[in-house]
Design a protein that fits this description.
Layout (H helix, E strand, L loop, with lengths): L1 E6 L6 H11 L7 E4 L12 E4 L2 E2 L13 E4 L3 E2 L8 H9 L3 E3 L2 H9 L4 E3 L18 E4 L11 H4 L3 E3 L11 H14 L2 E4 L2 H10 L3 E3 L34 H22 L1
Helix pairs in contact: 1-5, 1-6, 5-6
Length: 267
């Protein structure tokens, strides 16, 4: 058996690279990379274990993976706009229990008769680099009209960043992810519309304001205390760090256990 890191070759969102890096930390080694958007091309590979976190219904034609790929599903998200085929549901049933990133996915799986639990997002397990905290205020992909609601005292000193990048090869995953993560780890405040900018900030203890619709189905259950905020409501521009230790430890324990079990099969 070999161990693989899971990534998306079609994504132009650094949040996907950040999710890959979060999972890679638990693997004993990275023998190869598995492309989420081209799973069927690995049908002749040796048995391969990977942590299958992330969004799965962007490219439903390439899911489920062939039988020689051995996923551990945690932080799993399925968008309601996509129906799941009987083949998909059979595959998920064979790999239950499924840890889900959000409450919507958890409820959906249970309605299909699949054992599921709410895990939250694996990016909450990221460890903060040993770097000094600075004074930077970052605005990450903050769009209109959200930008107009940011107080001038913050906006005038803020640095604008983006999660958008060119399509990624596996050799650039860590470069793309850590280019953002180092900035989040040292910032005084991050204001963003990106879920996977907000979640690493929470993991690092960096205060974050997430400007997005609070009814976004991706948010429910993804992290205790995290909510989307809009210009129509009162926004706390000096938010305290969130306490996620219990959820973080549960995610770590589940991943460590799954990797241990896979290694035992190799031994």
């Amino acid at each position: 058996m070999q161990f693989a890191a899971f990534f998306s070759s079609l994504s132009i969102n650094a949040g996907d690279a950040i999710q890959t890096v979060a999972a890679m930390r638990f693997l004993p080694c990275v023998d190869t990379f598995i492309d989420r958007d081209n799973l069927q091309s690995y049908s002749i590979s040796p048995p391969t274990f990977y942590i299958g976190n992330g969004w799965y219904s962007n490219n439903v034609d390439c899911f489920p993976p062939p039988d020689n790929l051995l996923p551990f599903y945690i932080s799993f998200h399925w968008h309601p706009a996509n129906d799941a085929s009987p083949t998909v549901l059979k595959h998920l049933k064979e790999n239950e229990p499924i840890g889900t990133r959000d409450e919507h996915t958890c409820h959906w799986l249970k309605k299909q008769g699949i054992d599921a639990y709410l895990s939250g997002c694996l990016t909450l397990t990221l460890e903060r680099p040993t770097l000094p905290r600075g004074d930077a205020i970052l605005m990450v992909d903050v769009y209109q009209p959200y930008k107009n609601c940011i107080p001038e005292r913050l906006r005038k000193n803020a640095v604008s960043l983006s999660h958008t990048h060119r399509k990624m090869t596996c050799c650039r995953i860590e470069e793309v992810a850590w280019a953002r993560l180092y900035r989040y780890a040292t910032a005084r405040l991050v204001i963003t519309s990106r879920l996977h900018a907000a979640l690493p900030c929470i993991a690092f203890g960096t205060p974050v304001v997430l400007l997005t619709d609070r009814n976004d189905i991706r948010l429910a259950g993804v992290c205790p205390g995290l909510k989307g905020q809009t210009p129509e409501e009162h926004i706390d521009w000096d938010p305290p760090p969130l306490d996620i230790q219990r959820q973080k430890q549960d995610l770590i324990d589940r991943c460590v256990s799954a990797v241990h079990n896979a290694k035992m099969k190799v031994d």
